[in-house]
Amino acid sequence: MSLAKYIDTLSTEIASIEESGTAKGHERVVTAFIPPAEKKGPRFLLEGFGDKQFIRMNSNSYLGLSVHPKLIKAEEEAAKKYGVGPGAVRFISGTYKPHAELERKLAAFHHREDCLLTSSAYTSVLGVIVTLCTPETIIISDELNHNCIINAMKLARPKDRKVYRHVNMADFEHKIVESIGQCETILVVTDGVFSMRGVFAPLLTICELAEKYNDMFLRGIVVIVDDSHGVGALGKTGRGTEEITQAKGVDIIVATLGKAFGVNGGYVCSSKEVIRYLRERNQFYIFTNPITQGEAAAGVAAIDILDSSEGRDLLMHLHSMTVFFRNGLIALGYETLASPHPVVPLLVRETEKTAKLVAYLFDHGVLATGLNYPIVPKGDQLIRFQVNASHTLHDLETVLGVLATFKRQHWSK
């Protein structure tokens, strides 16, 4: 059967995406990592650009652990001992000692009873929401929640979906009140840190309101937080949005190993009963291979580092570099948002200008990501800079210097 007609349709769609200026384009291929030297943090080489070195300002590896020698060693040793792949899903024969050890470490780190490893934070969110949702469930969600939460709400087929205005607690409370008598359970779902803007959810208030109305529902209100960008990036000990807001009452935490922990995969932390139920019913877990044994061992090493004096030093440096860079943008006259998180957005608010600035940064050796509609709302187009603990003062001064030149020569044009 020929694909010719279908390919014509796809080609038309691709042309439309490119014409709108929202195409992601071809993926850059990293060919080498250059370790830190003197005043410089790590640099990267890209395929097709020879020996030109790039500063990476678009990495989720907030603590720089993805290239930490202890993680590399742990992964290598586990691969030698257990092999490079699990060879099966968990319940058949794919559970190895590093998987079980990592789950114990993560549960303890988050002060929860148990933990479930998954292949990614995306599938963690899908699995939790779809599995826990019933025909008598209403889901309440922040309007700027991540794409995985939006798709999970669609797949879950709840009785109703309610979306409140971004971090607007009056509107959030209104959504709870209007649900009284309409369902048995409410699933409240929010990002801990909103990844496009670097601001965090008011978890303390969310939990207080959930507790206030919990008894109004037959099966209560369950608070679910996807803190993939918060864990390892916020708080004195890196315990994320819960720590920085001092929230009590988050029932289920979803997060990732692929950002601050520098590895790969996702996880869910909650009570023993919730985790056991997810092991039995979560289709995204049951029928998907786990992360590799080496990745799990590297995850254990990452937690050990974060939960130590070395980790606290990394967090302090990360936080100081974040403040320096955000203040630098403000001093140059750029618009940004107030937050202690290392996602530092530069609000451009125009698709064409966003693309122009990304290209200018690239030409000057800086890797940064522009986010345009429909990833962000129209008028919120931005450059998402991501500071990490491997950046030095010299690195950020270099990036700010490039931005200063662009502002002077091109911003008003």
From TrEMBL:
Keywords: Transferase. Residues 53-401 form the Aminotransferase class I/classII large domain. Its cofactor is pyridoxal 5'-phosphate. GO terms for molecular function: pyridoxal phosphate binding; transferase activity. InterPro entries: Aminotransferase_I/II_large, AON_synthase_class-II, PyrdxlP-dep_Trfase, PyrdxlP-dep_Trfase_major, PyrdxlP-dep_Trfase_small. It comes from the Bacteria. Gene3D superfamilies: Aspartate Aminotransferase, domain 1, Type I PLP-dependent aspartate aminotransferase-like (Major domain). This is 7-keto-8-aminopelargonate synthetase. It comes from candidate division GN15 bacterium. The lineage of its organism: Bacteria, candidate division GN15.
